[in-house]
Amino acid sequence: MPDIKRNINALNKWFDAKRFLWLLVTTGITVLLFFDKDSVIYQRKLNREIRNLRAENQRLAREIRENQNLLQNFDRYDYLEKYARKTFYLRKKNEDIYLIKRPDSLKR
């Protein structure tokens, strides 16, 4: 009989209301932090993706502005010719083009 009472007392200590509440709260927080579909880890991943998409959006908006400026300047023939020569190394008849690369402009 004393062994049963000792076991019951041990169980009563284990299932004490404060300990049970503490265990319940700890388990709930753990589930919310790591295992829930809206967990903190998942939210951080989504926030990182949002940050990357915003940066890409800004980059694309800047690129669109640059292209719009190019299109506006292409109406002038002298600018179009200058752009074609610089970008595509186009040349006129009986004209030679020499590319000079400076050491400081080379990519390392």
Overview of the structural elements:
By secondary structure, the chain is mostly helical. It has one domain. The chain is built from four helices and no strands. The chain is rod-shaped. The model has no long low-confidence stretch (mean pLDDT 82). The protein starts with a helix and ends in a 20-residue tail after the last helix. Helix content is 72%, strand content 0%.
Spell out the blueprint of helices and strands.
Layout (H helix, E strand, L loop, with lengths): L1 H13 L2 H19 L4 H34 L3 H12 L20
Task: Give a short overview.
By secondary structure, the protein is mostly helical. Helix content is 72%, strand content 0%. The protein has one domain (2-105).
Mean pLDDT: 82
Radius of gyration: 35 Å
- Calculate the terminal CA-CA distance, rounded to whole Å: 85 Å
The percentage helix is over 70%
Overall 3D geometry? Answer: rod-shaped
Query: Describe the biggest sheet?
Result: none
- Supply the number of structural domains: 1
**Unreliable sequence segments:** none
H-E order:
HHHH
Structural class assignment: mainly alpha
